[in-house]
Each structure stands twice: as structure tokens, then as C-alpha cells.
Amino acid sequence: MTAAPLPPQEGASDPGATPSKRRIGVYVCHCGGNISDYVDVEQVVAAVKADADVVVARDAMFTCSDATQQEIAQDIAEHQLDGMVVASCSPKLHTLTFRSVARRAGLNPYEYTQVNIREQCSWTHTDDHDGATRKALRLVRAGVARTRLTEPLEPTAVETVPRVLVIGGGVAGMRAAVGLADLGLEVVLVERAPRLGGWVARLGTTYPHGADGGALVLRLDREIRRREAITVLTGAELVAKSGTYGDYQVTIHTEAEPITFSVGQIIVTTGFDSYEPAAGEFGYGISGVLTLPEFTSLLKESDGPITHEGRPVRTIAYIYCVGSRSEEHPYCSRFCCSAAVHSALLAADRGEEIRQYHLYRDLRTYGKNEAILTESRRRGSLYLKFADDQPPSVSHDGDGLRVTVRDQLTAGEEVTITADLVVLVTGMVAGKNPKLIGTLKLPVGRDGFFNEIHPKLRPVETVVDGVLIAGTCQAPKTVAESVASGLAAVTQAAAVLKRGVAELDPQVAVVNASACTGCGVCVDACPFGAITLVAAEGASAETGTAPVAGARTAVIDVAGCKGCGGCAPVCTVDAIDLRGYTNAQVRAMIDGLLVGVAG
Q: N or C: which end of the chain has fewer CB within 10 A?
């Protein structure tokens, strides 16, 4: 569909117009079709070129590509731009990307605005190309209006404490602690359980390399104990956090007494919980129906032929996706298929006469784990696929168990298996840490796991400055994946702390002391405790006015302020503004959105 012509903005530049006060560059992204399939990008560029203060306007297939970044930097230099607008995807993805472009080209990075015309426009209005195009232009004009009123800002530099708090003593946390210590940083490793190791310490032989989980944890524990820079606190948990980014004061509750540390970064590696089936779910509660962790323990704690409650085990049925891909837990737990197949190989090693049946919805032994799936089939395991709406049923059958399933691989034929053991292949669920979540203000997803800023671009960072996440507290992962994410958090934390100085976003709230009445409403509204009331004398030198006896004014700690803006709307006298998103800028953005709207 071809969009109707877009209206020019009032006051648009023309050859006889008054010279522009600002020199703004606008760049509109096709996003490989994600935007341009629904928005006429060329028409948006043509329309915005005529807007006041816009010196250059271009479109690009991918504005985030290296080539386009270089073109933008060249434009900034050649056209002496003092403002930049990029209309593309969510600011969560590429704000830092384009701030870096601006900085490299000599433009203050806080005079750049990113406009979201993908998630908020093209993807939202796929059925209305004309409307999407008009909306995209209005969003771009709102971005130009904001940029027109931007001012150069500089980050606030704060000294950092070269110590990291690692919460969670599983393999991700243990490996992170070793990595941090090897980089010359002090570490406080806190584990709620009596000993380190987490779930991996309970495992026997692991896949794909056959390493013993307990031995792996023992080696890591020895590495930790021989590093003086690591303080280990078991039977302990975080109970309080204060201070500012780069210099947090944390209180750890131990069995003896609370201990307080100053730390520059916090890494959360608190792990997961295994899904616990409800009574009767796939026969759970019946003798011989075990969860995968229970079956793993059975294999680890015995040698020779497998027995259960004194009876030999000759037939095992595995039921996959128990507690995963359900209404309550709609995600795939990723590791379960490989873990079940690996357990079947361990069981086969106990006696070739064991018959094993795998009842699955889908199999996801991704990567190199396909090899163990092939090996299990070669060793005699049979795989039967059931439909989502026709799960297997489990019941008593004398001294054994009867499992009935309709196998889609044989045109829905009903198959009955008489089994000695039924293993429910249970997945990972998010651990319950309400106190920790409240203390650190951790972002939690719908699945209960902690949320990173972006899974590809910022995979271990959270929206809470200086708080990183790694391992299975973030999502279901294998041991190798958990360790890799733990080391990613090490890199991120060390990159900040080894410099000795951290830069804080300057887009924080500011108080007009001469207008402030000292009512204190903003103090209660601030979720970060960054606002305090002081005697008005502290501001009288700036305002040039004599303070009223007993008067107070609000003061904002720039290191503690997160720029959320929660204090500004509650101020009854409009004495608080937010740098980068001032009242004037927001009003200008609204005016930009309304350009060309009838009435």
C-alpha cells in the first residue's frame, strides 16, 4: 500500500527562512524490512527533511551496522551536527550503540534521541501501512522536538570499591568467584545452604564428557579456599543493601552475627528449583514413580543392577516435559531431554537387558548432545511421541506400573507399557527468593526467572546498576552454559571495577531550590532513597534570597538517583525536573506528535 503524502511541519525550513538554531541529523532505519515492510521509510525521510533545524535526513537498511555508523559519524563532522535522532528499534537495544557513535564523532552523547518506530509503530500497525507511516513521522518529529531542547550532559564519576558480592554458591557463582579473584578483585561469596556446590554437587556422572559433578565442585572448592581474596559465607543471606553504584553497603546475615561489606558490584547466581509434580500428576506419589533428580540420585547411590525398594528394575518409562511447556510454565527447560537421555545411557550400563521407553512431546538434545541421543537408540531405547492434548496415563498394575500412550509415530496407535519405574522428566522452575528480590529490586519475568536487559546485547546486566545475573537464576541452562554466563558477569564487573571509577548517567532529577517548599512529598515518592530535606540555608547562596527561618528544601543525591522521574509529577509546585526529559522537552514532544492532526 502506498501511503498518502505526509504534511510538512509548521515552521519548516525553506530557502528564505531564518537560519536554524540547531543542526540536527535524522536517520530512519528499514531494519531489514521489519520497519520498511509496514512504514514508507523514504516518505518519512522526505517529510522530515523540511522540518526546522533538520540539516540532514537519511534512511538506511540497518542504522546499527558498522557502515551506517561510520556514515553518521561523518555527517556529524561534515555538517557540524549538534543533535541526532535515530528512528529504529527499541532504545533498550541500541542507545549505547548510538551514544558511542556520537561520542566518537565529537557530539555530546546526550544530545542524541532514539525513536522506536519498530515495536511502537511498524509491528503494532501491520494492517495499516498509511497509518503506520503517519505515526512514524509524528514519532520522529517528537524526537526532533526533544533533541532541539537537549543540552550537553556529562556523566558523574564515582570511585568504585574493588570488591564483588557473589550471591549463590553453585558452579556459576563458584567459577565467577575464582575468575574475579584471578583478576585482582576481592570477593564475598554468600551461599544460603550449609555448603557450596548447589545442584551439581548432587550429580554423579555428567554429560557430555563424563565428569563427576561432586568432583567438579570439590575442585572448584579447593580453588576458592586457596585464594585469600575470596571470603566464603555459608548458611548466610543478604538482608540489606544501601549506598550507590560502585560503592554499595551490603549486610549479610550469618548464623553468628550480621556482617557488613562495601562492594562495587553484585553478581546474583542463586540457581533454580526443580519442578515438584502435584500428587497424582502422571502417577506421582505411586511407588515407583520418580522425578528425574530422584532417579539420578538412585543411579549415583548404587552400583550394579538397578533395584528399587528391593525389586530389580528391568523396564523404565520416561515421560518428558513434566512441569515444562505447560500453562503454568510455558517455557522449555532445555536441559531435560539431554539429561534424561544421558540417564538412560547410565542405566543401560547397569545391564543390557533393561528395556527403556521414552515418551516425549518434542526432543531437544541440541548441539553435540545429538550424539548421546543416537547412542541411546543404538543401545535399545525406544522413543514414542505423544500429542500435546493426549499425555500418557500412569496407573498401578499389580506390583508394577502401567503406562498407556498414543504413539503419533505409529498413526496414534495405543501402546501399553508395563514398567518397574516411571521417571518424570521434570524441568527447572525459578527459585523462590522474595527477600532477595525485594532487597536488590531485581527484575523478574513472567516465568519467575530474573530478567537481563537484552539476551544478546547485554545478557548479564539488569536494569539495576551494578547488579548482574548469571546461571540458572536467569533461565534454564546446562552446567557449561551456567559457567559461561558466570564468566560473562566476571568480565562485566571487572571492566567497571578495574578502572577504579564508574560513570553514572547524568539524566537525573534536579531541584529548583528557589521554588521548593520543602513539603517532603518527593522524599516519600523516591524508591531509591536519593532525596533528603535540608535546611534552606544550604541553597540560599545559589538562589540569592534570604532563607525563611526553619525552611527546608529537597536535595537529590546524583549518585543515588536513577532518573526514574517518579518525584517530578508528585511535586505540587513543579520544583523538580528531569535532565534529558524536562517538562519543556516532554511538552515539545507532545506538540511534535500533534503536528498535522486535525482539530
A: C
Question: Is the pLDDT at 549 greater than 90, yes or no?
Answer: no
| φ, ψ for residue 341, nearest 5 deg | -65, -40
Query: Quick one: cell of 74?
Result: 561523518
Handedness of CA 219, 225, 228, 229 (dihedral sign): positive
What are the pLDDT digits (tens) for 150-199? Answer: 999 999 888 999 999 999 999 999 999 999 999 999 999 999 999 999 99
- Which fold does the domain 281-419 belong to in CATH? FAD/NAD(P)-binding domain (3.50.50)
CB neighbours of residue 72 within 10 Å: 26
Give 508's pLDDT tier (boundaries 50, 70, 90): very high
CATH topology for the 509-578 domain: Alpha-Beta Plaits (3.30.70)
- Please state the φ and ψ torsions of residue 477, each to the nearest 5 degrees: -150, 160
At 6, the amino acid letter reads L
pLDDT tens-digit series, residues 101-129: 999 999 999 999 999 999 999 999 999 99
Determine the residue type at 90.
S
Distances (CA, A) of 316 to 211, 214, 357: 24, 26, 6
DSSP 109: G
- Domain residue ranges in the chain: 24-154, 163-271+431-502, 281-419, 509-578
Query: What average pLDDT does the structure give for the chain?
Result: 91
Structural class in CATH, domain 163-271+431-502? alpha beta
Answer for the pair 482, 471: CB distance below 8 angstroms, yes or no.
yes
- Please give the C-alpha separations between residue 335 and each of 202, 408, 440, in angstroms, as whole numbers: 16, 24, 28
Report the amino acid identity of residue 384.
L
Partner residues linked to 13 by β-bridges: none
**Architecture, CATH, for domain 24-154:** 3-Layer(aba) Sandwich (3.40)
**Euclidean distance between CA atoms 383 and 450, whole angstroms:** 34
Terminal CA-to-CA distance of the chain, rounded, Å? 27
